[in-house]
Amino acid sequence: MDSRDIRRHWTNWATTYGSALRATTKTWTAKALEIDALSRRLRSVVGDSGGGKILEMGCGNGINCVELAKFFPNLSFDGVDFVPEMVTAAIENARSADVEDRVRFFVGDAIGAGNLPELQPSYDVVFTDRCLINLDAIELQKQAISILASKVKPGGYLLMIENSLTSYAKQNRCREALGLAARKPADFNLFFDEDEILLHVTAAGLELVDVEDFSSLHDLMLYVLVPAINGGAVDYDHPLVQAATTLSRELAAEATGTFGSYGQNRLFVCRRLT
Ligand SMILES: C[S@@+](CC[C@H](N)C(=O)[O-])C[C@H]1O[C@@H](n2cnc3c(N)ncnc32)[C@H](O)[C@@H]1O
Prior knowledge:
Blueprint: H1 3-17, H2 28-45, E1 53-57, H3 63-71, E2 76-81, H4 84-96, E3 103-107, E4 123-129, H5 138-150, E5 152-163, H6 165-177, H7 194-203, E6 206-212, H8 216-228, H9 239-252, E7 265-272
Parallel strand pairs: 1-2, 1-4, 2-3, 4-5
Antiparallel strand pairs: 5-7, 6-7
Helix pairs in contact: 1-4, 2-3, 2-9, 5-7, 6-8, 8-9
The structure holds S-adenosylmethionine (SAM).
GO biological process, one term: methylation
GO molecular function, one term: methyltransferase activity
InterPro entries: Methyltranfer_dom (IPR025714), SAM-dependent_MTases_sf (IPR029063)
């Protein structure tokens, strides 16, 4: 798929699913773990005092910003997405949740984020959640990281929840060990090549301070263990996937990385140096 097909794909999901979770995510369990990881990290890096400003690039229909705004009443959020129909649905979600005084949404492209007049000059935290994997070349992913880094205040953070080729390969090895075929990324995704991307993080003036694996148990259950007893089928509603979600959140409150690095998404935590 080229970049026009990728945009068409997201426009299609936005018009089909509107303000529902399904416009951006196939299962509520994965979204619950993403929001849990983002909120724990926001609490540790900015807390909830003093009016911090947060930007999400590729915000889809706004579910992350809206849910985080409910957890953090003193933070304000800007979300940007290149699909106008996603932004319309995001504004609707903010209105329904009664957080529209602190949550704004705009149409814009990750590659042009430096020039969006509506945005603040800089933010305490900029984050992405499965956005940069939609850029169809590593060079574009690197360019977007540099642009997003330039929107972070010195000492602030760029948080990226993105799919990784490294942890995906480990997950596929588990499938193969149980006689299942390796899965392939969707056509419209380019998972992070960590060797390339992490070198670039440093070149963009950021320091990688952590990589959190928050969905390993969930993804092992969803993509490996349940399919292994289920004729290979991925069952998003399986009770064991829900139990894995609950257990992952409970344990992450005490310590992270308990289940190794087998989740397809990882949270890359980067701090801007100057
Ligand atoms: C998998 S969805 C995730 C949405 C949201 N981050 C979430 O976690 O619910 C990816 C989103 O990124 C947006 N997107 C993809 N490429 C983009 C780009 N170059 N600039 C801005 N948004 C982009 C898509 O329109 C889509 O809404």
